[in-house]
Amino acid sequence: MKNVTITVDDNVLEWARVEAARRGTSVSRMVGDFLAEMQRREDAYERAYLAWRTDERTWEADDSAAVARSVCFARMGDSA
Fold this sequence. Notes:
Elements: H1 10-23, H2 27-54, H3 69-75
């Protein structure tokens, strides 16, 4: 693991110390966990985006699945 130096406002650091203590961890671990979570989310988004971009399926509607508007409202008890 590598060490890194960061600059934060005093009030942010105070909050981070209290929050880390509440969680039973250190500010350093909390920041590391936060960055790792950001990386996981970004990687997942990138994979999903690339999968979508390379998806060659067509998304045309099939008329057999269509339901008339009146049928939908009848099923809802005409509440709309």
